[in-house]
Amino acid sequence: MKNEPLEKGLVEVFTGSGKGKTSAALGVVLRAAGQGLRSHIIYFMKGEYPYGERKVFPLLPNVTCQSFGHEDFVDPNNVKEEERQQAKEGLEAARQALAGGDYDLVVLDEINIAVAWKLIGIEEVLQLIEDKPQNVELILTGRHADQRLIERADLVTDMVEVKHPFRKGIKARRGIDY
Amino acid sequence: MKNEPLEKGLVEVFTGSGKGKTSAALGVVLRAAGQGLRSHIIYFMKGEYPYGERKVFPLLPNVTCQSFGHEDFVDPNNVKEEERQQAKEGLEAARQALAGGDYDLVVLDEINIAVAWKLIGIEEVLQLIEDKPQNVELILTGRHADQRLIERADLVTDMVEVKHPFRKGIKARRGIDY
User: Fold this and answer.
1) Of B116, B127, B134, which is closest to residue B44 (Cα–Cα)?
2) CA angle (A132, A134, A136) in 5-degree steps
3) CATH code for the domain in which residue A116 is found
């Protein structure tokens, strides 16, 4: 697997209420790993919950991750200072990941929610994009993507929920949903 | 990584014109691998083109794939008998993968297009679902999902293209798009 850097890294956004946002970002990471690109995933608001994918990142070449936040759901109407601080640290980690030259692909998972719930500001995310080196691909996931991010992004997919088993009371299943 | 089978496997459909359908299915495969589930991906109409993900499947536990078809795009207005035959073989492989008991997750990539372009019939796909063992998860991807499949599925996400760089003439990029 040769490592030719990306000529031009774009900004991709996976948003919407349907299943597939984080999954799609992970799929791109898998593809990137197979083509010799180096990926780094930064999880916002997801904590150390045993997400399946994290157990196999070490088996893939050049796939690493960091996680900021708790596994407990953040209450958007009652955001704690600690949660804001964790998101801020995630943002700082994103800055370093982009600037450091160690990665071809950086995924900021659930960052859109962190913005929607005002844990971090959209201006900070737009600045991150502004400062992004040209040859790094950046993927931002999470529902409620800010309109200014959508305008700035090169690729946006709205994952629309047509049907979801959670609506029928079926709980998240290990290996499929986490 | 323990291997507890799925209690109840559902039918998931990733359709729509936006980026993320195959990627999302691959993301679920990655997650499944991390949780000890066994996945098999059947590619329709994709041939042996060097897709990034296929290079790293051997590094993951219990991830295998088969591919049926050519890397050349099928012309829906001029389907060749050979292309129909390949899709039929893919369908037969899907039947065996579901019935064999060797997999917890089976992905039928681009099968929706194979149906939309009449390489295979929707009735055959619905029969496949009808015969699916209860503890196997089935993911079907590709745009133009048939309405009868949408009605039958437990989960459907419509990946709506809001923006795509291909529209601006940017070509598919190695490691990101394939």
Assistant:
1) B116
2) 70
3) 3.40.50.300
Q: Which domain holds residue A104?
A: 11-164
pLDDT one-digit tens code per residue, A28-87: 999 999 999 999 999 998 877 778 999 999 999 999 999 999 877 888 999 999 999 999
Mutual orientation of helices A122-130 and A81-99 as an angle, nearest 10°? 10
A6 at B interface, C-beta within 8 A: yes
Token code pair at residue A176: 């499929």
Residue A61 in domain: yes
Asked if A175 and B7 come within 8 Å (Cβ–Cβ), the reply is no
Cβ atoms of B21 and B159 within 8 Å: the answer is yes
With respect to residue A71, please indicate whether it lies within any of the assigned structural domains.
Answer: yes
Interface check A99 vs B, CB under 8 A = no
A68 pairs with which residues across the strands?
A44
pLDDT tens digit sequence for A108-131? 999 999 999 999 999 999 999 999
Q: At what angle do helices B81-99 and B122-130 cross, to 10 degrees?
A: 10
